[in-house]
Design brief:
- With about 350 residues, this protein is α/β, with parallel strands linked by helices.
- The protein is built from 14 helices and nine strands.
- The longest helix has 23 residues.
- It starts with a helix and ends with a helix.
Length: about 350
């Protein structure tokens, strides 16, 4: 019948589109591990510098090429990260790993460089309402504040990464227009940000509006300079990452054990767990260079310190599998042995 032929043609076109997209997937994805900074900044329990240093060193040993170490913001605003200089001094830096830090302004940048930072990140948002709450100014004013920082970074040969928060929704404004995200991302890139990370700060995004947002941004910013940063509040982070991969994005931010949250975004839960992202990517045949087993152990370490179960489903599954194997491998009881004899 006509409807049957129509269905067949639609399915054929869908399959052709799937195969075209599948061939467009990146062969390798760079994971930017943000757990030590974005993951810990919202923790109410103070994490000692020694634990942070151990966390960073253990993450570095898993094959991750980027571990965001800390933030040089005012300790009055983020007390958890008031030990930034101590942490930077204490970590064991591997030659193949980058350790970027957050710097809100020139003062923060200078402190970061004095502590040995070779890369910094600046942050703004696609919502004026959010920047007002987060950094006390408008989007345009935040960009103006970055100008002396970018100038100093060029002189010092320090790389600068840009963050854009609330790209798929704002806790104060609500919906955010993709064109607003594209404008801010383009301005950051034009100022000198080698990479712009697009953050779904409150985790409200879906694959549909993620696709629309990425199409708007990549019309103004080179695809090679685009990264994505998803929180998993509504369980949409992995689908959104998949859509991003299908659009050619090759850099993904994530946090070990799903740590995270934002002090200025009430209700925002943790970042997508790095373990879950790596498991998905490896299952798709995409390289990351990360040892998943070792990464899972790091997630269990920091979760145990914080006194809670890891938010990574993959890590919980791996742990359960190990426990089951250990139980199965236990020798039979003496009673059972006697009965067999």
């Amino acid at each position: 019948t006509q409807s049957t032929w129509g269905n067949r043609i639609s399915m054929h076109l869908l399959l052709r589109r799937f195969h075209a997209v599948a061939h467009a997937l990146p062969r390798r994805v760079k994971i930017v591990e943000v757990g030590p900074r974005d993951g810990l900044q919202n923790e109410s329990r103070v994490v000692p510098a020694a634990i942070k240093i151990q966390l960073i060193d253990r993450l570095s040993a898993t094959g991750l090429s980027v571990v965001e170490a800390t933030s040089f913001v005012s300790p009055k605003k983020i007390p958890q990260l008031g030990d930034a200089a101590e942490v930077m001094k204490g970590i064991r830096r591997l030659p193949n790993v980058s350790y970027p830090v957050l710097a809100p302004n020139l003062k923060g940048y200078q402190a970061a460089v004095a502590a040995g930072a070779k890369e910094v990140a600046v942050f703004t948002a696609a919502s004026d309402a959010f920047t007002a709450k987060n950094i006390g100014c408008t989007i345009d004013e935040s960009l103006q504040r970055f100008e002396p920082l970018f100038a100093a970074a060029r002189q010092d040969n320090v790389k600068v990464r840009g963050y854009v928060s609330c790209v798929l929704g704002c806790p104060y404004q609500g919906k955010v227009d993709p064109s607003a995200v594209a404008d801010v991302a383009a301005k950051l890139h034009a100022m000198g940000a080698y990479e712009v990370s697009l953050g779904d700060t409150i985790g409200v995004g879906t694959p549909g509006n993620t696709a629309s947002m990425l199409e708007a941004v990549t019309a103004k910013v080179p695809l090679s300079a685009v990264a994505v940063h998803f929180h998993d509040t509504y369980g949409q982070a992995l689908p959104n990452i998949l859509i991003s991969l299908q659009h050619g994005v090759g850099t993904v931010d994530s946090s070990v054990a799903g740590l995270g949250g934002c002090p200025y975004a009430v209700g925002a839960t943790g970042n997508v767990a790095t373990e879950d992202v790596v498991y998905m990517l490896h299952g798709m045949g995409i390289e990351t260079g990360v040892d998943l087993e070792a990464l899972s152990e790091v997630g269990l370490f920091i979760s145990e310190f914080l006194g809670r179960t890891t938010a990574s489903r993959v890590s919980r599954a791996l742990q359960g599998k190990k426990q089951k194997a250990a139980t199965t491998a236990q020798p039979a009881s003496s009673d059972a042995t006697t009965a067999k004899l």
